[in-house]
Every structure is written in C-alpha cells, then in structure tokens.
Amino acid sequence: MAGKRDYYEVLGVDRNATEKQIAEAYRKLALKYHPDRNPGDEEAVAKFKEAAEAFEVLNHAEKRAIYDRYGHAGLEGRGVGPQFHDISDIFQAFGDIFGDGLFGDLFGRGRRRRGPRKGSDVACEVEIELAEAATGVKKPVTFHRHEYCPACDGTGAKRGTRPETCRYCGGRGQVVQQSGIFSIQTTCPSCRGAGSIVREACGQCRGSGVVVTEVTREVSIPAGVDDGMQVRLPGEGEPSPEGGARGDCYCSIKVRPHPFFRRDGRNLLCQVPIGYALAALGGTIEIPTLEGRHELEIPRGTQSGTQFAVKGAGMPDPRRRGRGDLIVQITIEVPQRLTPEHERLLRELAELENRQVGPERRSFFGKLKEYFQAG
User: Fold this and answer.
1) What span, in angstroms and rounded, lies between the C-alpha atoms of 310 and 316?
2) Scanning 85, 297, 339, 368, which has its CA 20 to 30 A from the CA of 132?
C-alpha cells in the first residue's frame, strides 16, 4: 500500500534474514523508540509502532511468505495484516518472545504491574553540625503529607452519601480512543481516572478525600553522612490512591559549615597559621579536632604549605569501616604591625640572612644572576 515503508527496510535487515536476526533487529528498535524513553516525541512513537508492525509480519512464516510475494497489498487483501489495537497488544504479543527483561521491565507499566500503585514520595530537610555528621545523630523532622480525610473516610463524599460509578468510563477510569490500527488509552475526562464521581462533596476535604497534615518524625542519621545525602523514612510518604502502600519520605542532609574544618571525602582539611620564628625553630602547637584539642609537633625549618596528617581524626564512611585523617596545612603568618623592638630584631635578622644565605635561596639568586647576565 502507498505510504508504507518496506518491512525489511524498517527493521534494517535483508530479505534473507533469519528469525533470530529479525528478532534482534526489532529488539534494538523497540528499546530505542519506546515511548517511555522518548516522552512527547511523536516521531519516536510512530517508529515504535512501525517496527512492531514489521516484526509481527516478518516473524510469522505464513505472513512473511505472503508479504514477500505480494507486499503490503497482499496482506491487506487477505485480512492477515497487523492486528494491533493498542500498545498493550504489543506487550501481549511479544512479551513471551523477549522475556521479562525487555517487556517485563521496560514495558511493565502496561500489563505486568502487580498490585496497587504505591503512594508518592515526599521530601524534607534537616541541618546538622559536622561533629554530628561524624558520630551519627537522631533528629526530629517536620514535613507535610496528605492523610485520608477523617470526615468522609477518604471517599470525598458528604457523610451519608457515596461516590457514584462514572457512567462515561463505566468505572474503569480510562477511555480508549482509536487511532488507525492502534488504540490510545487515556484518563477519563469525566472522573479524571477515579472511576467514580462525587455528587455531594465532603465539606472538610472538598471532595478530594484527603487533607494536608503536618507530621513530625525522628530520623536516624548514620555516622559519616555528607552534605546533600538523603536518608529514607520508609512508609512516611503520601497514601496510595489505589489502596496500596504509602510512599516514602526522603530527608536531605545539610551539614553546616565548620569554622575550622573543610571536608574532602573522608578527610578533614584545616589551615593553621604559625609565626616565622616557630617555623624556623620548631615547637609544639595546639590544634582543634572534632574530639577536642590536640598537640602537633612542628619540626625545625617547616615551610609554608607543609601538610601534616593526624591519623584517624577525620570522618567515618557510612559504607565501610575506619575514619579518614585530619590534614593540617601550615601557613607562615607575616605580621602587619610591628613594635619598634620587633622591627629592630627583624632588621638584624635580615642583615644576618644576607650574609648567611641558605642553600635554596643561594640556588635561586645564583640562577637569577645568570639569567640577567645572559640578557
């Protein structure tokens, strides 16, 4: 028939292709153009249907023989053309051929869903200190969710009345619209998918059957959580519109900035300023850790930017044992204001350094001299 592409061309196989090659070609196209993977893309939907139509014919020995001899007209003339009415027919026809891996997981939305749909999830947020993130903590959280209206027991109807079965869809909540050889199933416009209509609405919930409720729960935050991680509170979400299990509540963790520490995975980073004299002569300084004070030995001749690791003073990992380290980075602090005595001593030190240049400075100034002489 005019306008239809050659079925072998649709699947991208030659006319001598085996059944296995045809099935594999269709599998790839079904995955590529499935509507769930291409939301709102009408061209992809059309190609998905076209591939299913081609596969139905070429996968059937008798239909394939007729098509090979007479083409599209031969199929239509004998009434053996594709017999799909809607997308679910494709699932019914090919689910056993490809197994649950393709049509069970990818297309399961159509016919393989078991039991009533789960309720929607809700979200909340909790702030904690870095020290609490290191040890784990329990915190109260407050969030909003819907509860079945106590005045109407969730029916949405005024007390003493009951919802009526929708006459437009017969209580199914869905209506079918024909489009060529396919039927498109959509939500009933009369009852909006409920399958029933409330004639006299409940005054408390205004016919919705649910009311917004503020809920407070306690969330257990494991040790080692990082900023942006989530903790799930199972069964604390929205009720199911079909009587199934509640959704979950996902609690996002926000770790407040610390005045001394910056986190890098399991390690904590801390910059500690020291004076020139301490860096040159060495000594002991007191540094902060999450557990309290800690003494750190500074060796003689410590340079600015030198790092020291305090083992096990970092953060735990919620997925494995052990803790990271506290990485202390030394910076040499230069005073901006000097007392006369301090300035006098520094000038004496500068004169001494000019006469006794260290090996690194000697190397630098030697290269600098050579550089200017070469210019």
Assistant:
1) 14
2) 297
Separation of alpha carbons 197 and 170, rounded Å: 11
Q: What is the number of other CB atoms lying within 10 angstroms of the CB of residue 374?
A: 6
Mean pLDDT of 345-372: 69
Supply 35's token pair.
């509507």
Q: Are 253 and 126 in contact (CB under 8 A)?
A: yes
Both tokens assigned to 278: 């301490």
Helix axes 19-33, 42-58, angle to 10 degrees: 160
Q: CA–CA distance from 261 to each of 255, 288, 295, 306 (Å)?
A: 12, 9, 17, 17
Q: Over the range 68-86, which residues count as b (16 or more CB within 10 Å of their CB) and which as e?
A: eeeebebbeeeeebbebeb
Q: Tell me the DSSP string of 26-82.
A: HHHHHHHH-GGGSTT-HHHHHHHHHHHHHHHHHTSHHHHHHHHHHHHHHHHHHT-S-
**104: Cβ–Cβ under 8 A, 6 or more apart, which residues?**
95, 112
Residue-wise pLDDT for 295-336, tens only, equals 999 999 999 999 999 999 999 987 778 899 999 999 998 888
Q: Torsion angle, CA of 342/344/348/350, rounded to 10 degrees?
A: 70
3-state SS assignment for residue 217: strand
**pTM listed for this prediction:** 0.57
